[in-house]
C-alpha cells in the first residue's frame, strides 16, 4: 500500500463555477498531511468528496488502493474515513451520548445501554465530558473532542480535521496537537486543514497546496521554506511577513477604563489608549479578554467601573451611545454580530451612518453607494459591486465589510476582536493594515486576538490572566515570552 | 509551571450531577398549570370533577389531540404543516361522498360502505404525501406550501358539497366516534393509545430519534447516514393520516360533516404544541409535553363553558391563557424560548 488515501484527477463543478479542476491528493499511511490554500481554493469541496457526501464529476477516490464505496453506502464510507467538519455536526438539543451513537442506536433505543456505551467510548479516547450532558451546553473544545471520538468510533484509520483550531485558544490547540500526535503514533492517517501555517509546520509531515481549484504542489514540510509555501498559496513571489510600522503615539487619551469589573469575566481592570496607539489584549479563552473588549465596545455592561470615550461617558451597554461618542468596533464573531448576510455590501458598511445619508428618515441610495464605493476602495474589498449581498463574499472579504462598518464613521477609538479568524493570509495582512491605517489617521485602537502574529502590530500588549491584567508588554516580545505570561507560568 | 493534565478541557460544562434526570421533568412544566386548572375548576362548578365531565373533556379533545400529535412530530423534525386542519373535514367528506348515493350528495360510485374509513385515511395520506413532495422534493417553503394547501384542501370540501352539510353517513364512519369501550368513549382510547405509541416511537426508536436529529441539524443527520428526505416524507404522510383519523372521530361525535369542520383548529394545535414545549425551530420537545399542552387547552375550554362565559368572549380568554401558560413554562423551564 503506497498511499492510504488517493484522490485522482478530481473535477467538480457547481453550476458555472468549477470548485475543483483536475485536482488530487495522495496521503501516505500514518502521515499527518496538511491541505492548505486560500478561501475558495477547493479545500472544502475535496473534503466532501473524500467523505462521500458529494460525488466528483470526474476522477476517482481510492482508499488503500481500493475504489471508494458507492454514495449511498454511508456506513462503508464511515469505516474508511472520519471527519471533523468545520461546521459542527453535533446536534445541540440531544445529549452527548445520543450524538455519539446517532443513527446507530439500534432499532429500539435502550437508553441505559446507550449511556454506558457512550461513557466507555469517551473514556477510551480520554474525553472528559459527561455523556448525559446536552451537547449544546458544551464548549467548543469539548464539542470537538466529542466529534473526534465519534469519528474514530467507526473504526476509520483516516481522519480529516477541517480547520479544527479556528475557534480554539492557545492551550486548547496545544491539547489538540498532543492528541493528534498520540493518534499518529497509533498509526492513524490524518488530513489537516488550517489557515495557520505555523501549525502546519508544527504538526504535519507533508503539505499539499491548492490554488484556484487546482493542485499546485505537494512537498514534505521539513524541506519547505515558509516563504515558498506562502507564495504557492497566493501565487505571488512576495514575502508576506508583516512589515511592522513604527509610530509615535500622541498624548490624547481616546479610550479609558477604570476599575471595570464584571462577575465571572474580569475584575478591577483599568487601561487607557492614546491616539495613534494600538494596544493589544492577549490571554487564554478564559482570561476575560473578549468580555472586556465587548464592554469597551458597549456590547456588554460592566457591574462597576467606568469607560470614557473621547472624554465622553457613554451609557454602559448602550451601543448607539458608544458609536455616537466616536467608537467603532469589530465584533468577535462576524457571522453573529458582524453583518446581515442578505443585505448588500453598501447597506452593511454604511449601517452606522445611515442618519447622515439623507434627511427625514430617508436614506439616499446614491449617497450610500458613493460612501460604500469609497469604503470598498479603501479596504480593497473584492466584490461584484456595492449591491452584492455580503453572504456571497468569501470569509476575508466579509470581514472587510465588517471593518468598513467599524471604520465608516472615522472613529477615534477602535475596538477590534479576533479580526483574522478564518481568513486567508493575504486578507489577514490587509485587515491588520486597515487597523494601522486608522491609527495613523489619529485613532487609538484596542486589538484582541488569539493569534500572536496579529498582536505584532501593537505598540504594547496587555496580558490578561483569570480576569486581570497581569502584564503590560512593550513592542519587541517573543512568542515564548508572551505565551508564558498568558499561561500564568511567569509574571 | 502549569501541571494540568493535557487531556482535561479547561471548562467543565457545569451539567454534572443530577441535571439530566431533571431534564426529564422539563416535559412536565405544565403539570402545575394543569393542577391549578383542576383546582380552579373544582371551585368553579361542582360538576367539573365528575367522571362524566372529565370524560366529556377528553372526548372533545380526542380529535384535536391527534392533530397536536401530528404537528408535534412535524415541528420536531423542523418542518411545518398548516393544512392539517383542512384535512380534518375534507378527508372524511370525500371518503363519504365516494360511498353514498348521488341522491344523498355523493358521487354515486356505489363503493361499499365498509371502505369509508380506509378511504378517508388514504385521502389524508395523499394530502400529506403531496405536501411532502412539494416541500422535500421540490424544496419549497413548508409555511407557504401548507398555507396554500390549507386553502386548497378546504376548497376540496366546499366545492363538491357546495357548502352543504353531509347528514346521510354510512354507519361505519360513525362507529369510532360514538361507541363506548369499557365505559369510556372509543375516541379517548384511540387517542390515548396513539399518544402512547408516539411517546414510545419518538423516545425509544431509531426512526423516532432521527426526527430530533433532523430537526436539530439536518446536515449532521445526513452525515450520520439518516435518510433525511425519506423520514420527512413519512412524517408528512403520517401527519395527514392522523388528521384524517381526527376527522373520522369528529364526524362520529357530531353525526354529520359540516363545511366548517376543523376550520380554525390549527391555532389551538400550534398553541398546544408550543406551550407543551415543542420548539417552532425544530429538534426540541416531546409528545408527552404536547399532550400536557392539549390538556391545558381542554381544561380551560371546559371551565369557560361551565362558567357560562359568552362564546364571543372566549377567544380573548384562550389567547390570554396561552400567553400565561407560556410565561409559566418559561419560568419553570428556565431557558429563553425561540
Provide a brief overview of the structure.
The complex is a heterodimer of chains A (491) and B (338). Chain A is an alpha/beta fold and 491 residues long.
What does this structure look like?
Chain A has helices spanning 43-50, 74-80, 96-100, 111-124, 140-152, 170-185, 197-203, 226-234, 289-296, 319-324, 334-338, 345-349, 365-379, 395-407, 425-440, 452-455, 479-486, and strands at 5-14, 17-27, 32-36, 58-63, 66-67, 82-84, 158-162, 189-193, 206-211, 214-220, 253-262, 266-274, 278-282, 304-309, 327-330, 413-417, 444-448, 460-465, 468-474. Chain A has 491 residues and is α/β, with parallel strands linked by helices. Chain A folds into two domains: 5-90 and 138-234, 3-Layer(aba) Sandwich (Rossmann fold); 253-486, P-loop containing nucleotide triphosphate hydrolases (Rossmann fold, 3-Layer(aba) Sandwich), CATH 3.40.50. In chain A, the strands form four sheets. Chain A has a six-stranded mixed sheet with strand order 6-7-8-3-9-10, with helices on both faces. Chain A has a six-stranded mixed sheet with strand order 15-16-17-13-18-19, sandwiched between helices. In chain A, helix 13 (365-379) packs across helix 14 and helix 14 (395-407) runs parallel beside helix 15. Chain A is globular. With 338 residues, chain B is an all-alpha fold. Chain B has a domain at 63-263. Helices cover 67% and strands 1% of the residues of chain B. Chain B contains 14 helices and two strands; from the N terminus they run αααααααββααααααα. A two-stranded antiparallel sheet of chain B has the order 1-2. The longest helix of chain B has 27 residues, at 228-254. The radius of gyration of chain B is 22 Å and the shape is globular. Chains A and B meet through helix 2, helix 5 and helix 6 of A and helix 1, helix 9 and helix 10 of B. Chain B: Its main location: membrane. Chain B: Keywords: Cell membrane, Membrane, Sugar transport, Transmembrane, Transmembrane helix, Transport. Chain B: One of its GO terms (molecular function) is transmembrane transporter activity. Chain B: This is Simple sugar transport system permease protein/ribose transport system permease protein. Chain B: It is found in: Cell membrane.
